[in-house]
Structure formats: C-alpha cells, structure tokens
Amino acid sequence: MDALPFQLTPAVCDRARLARDPRFDGRFFIGVLTTGIYCRPICPAPSPRLSNIRYFPTAAAAAEAGLRPCLRCRPEAAPGTPAWVGTSVTVRRALQLIHEGALDSSSVEELATRLGVGTRHLHRLFVQHVGASPIVVAQTRRLHFAKRLIDDTALPMTSIALASGFGSLRRFNAAFQNTYGRAPRELRRERRDTAGSSSDGLDLRLAYRPPYDWRSLHAFLAARAMPGVERVTARTYARSIRVNEVSGWFEIRQARTGDGLELSVHGLEPSVLFSVVSRVRQMFDLSADPAEVRAALRGDVLLAPLLRARPGLRIPGAWDPFEIAVRAVLGQQISVAAARTFAARLVVAYGSPISATEGLTHLFPEPAQLATADLTTIGLTRSRAATIKALAKAVCDGAIRFDAGNTADELRDRLLAIPGIGPWTVEYIALRGLGDPDAFPAEDLILRRMAGNGAALTTAVLRKRSEAWRPWRAYVVMHLWRAA
C-alpha cells in the first residue's frame, strides 16, 4: 500500500470503503486489481475482495500504477484535496504550479529549474510523496477536468481539449482512449444528464466536503464587495475577472441540491477554464476537509463551542492575491466600510472599464496601473499611497510573486521589506490571498480580545497560545472573527 495522507491507515481505509463514508471522499482512492480501475470510497459498485484492493493517496498514483478511472463513481468529480499536505516544501510548490498549468506549456526540466532542483531529484520527490511522476500528475489533472467537461457541458471536443491543457485534439483523443478505454465522443453519448451550459456562458458544479457554511462566507464577501468589480445578491456572488488579457465575469451560488456550488463563467475562451475553476476553488476554499480541522481543534475549550456552531466555516479567499494585498493596505487601522469606500474610489479612478453585466463595470487595477499612479487623489495619505505604489512596482519588477515561484517565507520577507507593510498585513494577505491554512495575524485586536474572553491578550501571548492550533490557525481566525 502506498503512503497515505492524513494518517490514513489500511484499517481506516477498509472501514471507510465498506461504509462508503463520504467524509473520506477524495482523501484516498481504491484500486481494484482484477478490473484495472480505481474508485472513490463512495463508489456504489459491489465491494471487491480485500485481496484484490490497493489504496492510493492520489488519483495520479493510481494512474501511475496503470489503473483507469471508474465511470460509475467518477473520480474526477470527487471534492478537491490538498494532496500535498505533509509532503516536502518543494513538492508542495511544484504541485501548486502544476495545478496552475505549469506543465501545459513547459517541460519538467523547466519546472525543476524554476524550483531550484534537478529534474531527477524532483522526480524522486514526487514518487516518494505523491506516488506518481510530475508528468502523470499533470496528465491526470487534464483528463479529470476533461471528463467533467464532457459530462457536464455541451462544449465541442476541440474546446474541451484546449480547456484541459492538451495542445491538439489528436493528443487529447489518444490520452483519453488510453486512460478510459474508449473515445471521448463515446462517453458523451453515454452520459445520462443534460449538459450544463447556458446560452451565454458555461455552467459547472464544484464539489466540496460537507458541511459548508455558505451563509458565513457569502456574508463576509458581501460586507467587503467593491462596487463595479463585485456584485452580491441574496443568493449569489459575482465579479469581473481578466485572464490572459481577456475580460469576463463569473457568478457562483450554493447548489439547490447536493453538496456543491454552481459556477457560471461568461466571456472567456474555453482554453482558460481550468485556470478559472482552480482559482474559484481556492477563493471559496473548496478543497478544505472540515472533519480534519475539527478533529485538530475541538479539544480546545475556547474553540469547541465555535466548531459546534459552525462546523463548515471556510476561509474566504480572493480571485487575485495582488488585489487582496492592495486592499489589505487600504484597510489598515480603519473600518471595513471605510476600506470598501477607498477600494471603490481606486477602481473608478484606475480600473479598466468593461461591459460585462449589470453591476460589473470595471476590472480591478493591474500592478502596472498603480505603480505610477498618484493615489493621493482618491484621499489616501502620502505614506499609504507610497506603500501601494511600492508594492505594485515590486510585483511589476518580479521581486514579489504571488504564485509558487516564491516560498511562503520568501514572500513574507519581501512583503515586510516594503515600508508600510507590517506583520498583520502580511498575514492577512497570506490568509485570504494565498489560502494559507496556518496564516495568523496575531496583532489583530479582535483576535486578541476574543482569545482573552474580552480582555485583550498581548500579541506575544496570543502567538504562543496559537501554537496549539497549528497548522489550522487561519480557521481559528475565521471562527473568532465570526463569533465577534
């Protein structure tokens, strides 16, 4: 049996498989040696003999072993999982870059160079920690996304091939035939449901592990929504976006049935769909495992009642880390409402106007637009304006990169080197912009008061207290903020 994440032992996997426990969906995969397929723990097919089963930590590891995805339980539709938890820093960064499409247009050699390691060493690390090579991880990602588009949309096969990262329809067909044992068009003919495409956009369902506190996340985003860039209704969240210099927008809502969110993407080419879906999943924290978070934190007397009250609380992420960095600076030592006012002024003054849909009139300014702007014209102090300009210039120059090109520690150090950016701002950026589950702005007054039951703890005392909450401190932040 391969090394499994989250301390999943063979005995635990056996029990989860026999119970078809949905809490383990996406956390491991079941290979059936007699049929040559791999399944999710919730697969409705009759359970095979234990002697014919092998467990895998990731779908890519199962694919590396020569198994193909089950057409009944659809492994590609399983909730996302941060499969790199517990792996080396290099593998975590590499997986993030692959997830962002690094191997769709570049080679493994270029990826290894970007990470500062040799190609052979990177391959060894992947086999050790993930159970598959980088190429297999990337191809499994492409095929799973393509299978979802075949099942859930009416996109033509050429568009699906491009959307899932294949350079040509011939390569796509060959990979699909090799993996699924049939052509993509055969699978589309066999599907039972109707494609989820609207007349002017593309509709997809994004899975998560329940419970999911949509109401709290929706309220958090609504309180901070920027007019012109974001639109929040009673049931939906929408925003304008730009991908590869093309503007569009998306809207998301809680699914009416089942565990998932419904995403509609408008105005963009199919070739960028995977990137959009990946960023939306991070923005709405859809890969989190609430059971894992609860198990780690429920022994704390301060947190136990909060976890019971909101067991599905998630981290509200962001579409663009740079945007969150700018908004974090705007929000320093002022109210949420005041920060929103400054953000709205910034958008009107320096954002690019677009024609998207009702209520979405602008894109958030790019770093190049802010690097030379006179931000005092929107009411900012000279020092705060200088901080935002310095941040924008550092991003333009490549000194600060919000992708996996910088390690978390490197990024924190480079942000702290900018005058006007302190530890609170850096941790807020890590929490919302990077989705760091252990981000913790210990200087935050509300956190210090809530952790001290009304009497504010010192930053040093709170930071020491928080060591027991690692590596899930960002979820503690959300629980304490929500409780306040």
Give a summary of the structure in a few sentences.
The protein is α+β, with helices and mostly antiparallel strands and 484 residues long. Helices cover 46% and strands 12% of the residues.
How would the global form be characterised? globular
Distance N to C terminus: 46 Å
Structural class: alpha+beta
Instruction: Please give the count of helices.
Output: 23
Mean pLDDT: 89
| Biggest sheet architecture | 5 strands, antiparallel
Strand order of the largest sheet: 5-9-8-7-6
Over all CA atoms, what is the radius of gyration?
23 Å
Write up what this structure looks like.
It is a single chain. The termini are far apart. The protein contains 23 helices and eleven strands. With 484 residues, the protein is an alpha+beta fold. The chain is 46% helix and 12% strand. Strand 7 and strand 8 (246-254) form a beta hairpin. Strands 5-9-8-7-6 form a five-stranded antiparallel β-sheet.
